[in-house]
Amino acid sequence: MVNDPPLYFAEHVFCCTNERPEGHPRSSCKAKGSEPLREYMKKRAKELKIKGVRINASGCLDRCELGPTMVIYPEGVWYHYDTEADVDEILERHLTRGERVERLMLQPGQTKLSETVEK
Fold this sequence. Notes:
Elements: E1 11-16, H1 34-47, E2 53-58, E3 69-73, E4 77-80, H2 84-96, E5 105-106
Parallel strand pairs: 1-2
Antiparallel strand pairs: 1-3, 3-4, 4-5
């Protein structure tokens, strides 16, 4: 809208850190290591002096089977990530250069990591 205030943060990264009971059929991002990866992402973003970005912990993003997951707004791009190298690539390519990390992107309707979804 014309009268909207300027953005406080240019981008928000929401990293799911939801925890479900052990053995839950959907598992959880926390069980898949999301918390230490989020902490690493925060630390690296600060080290790289990435400005205008807020990296938040989030509750369930409802894509548990694909976790750990994150979503970056305002673009609404979803990623699966497993390693610090994945986080580094997202920081460098998406948050620094404005590119997408296609190999880690999740698609609407995707329910399995190995699944290809028609666009």
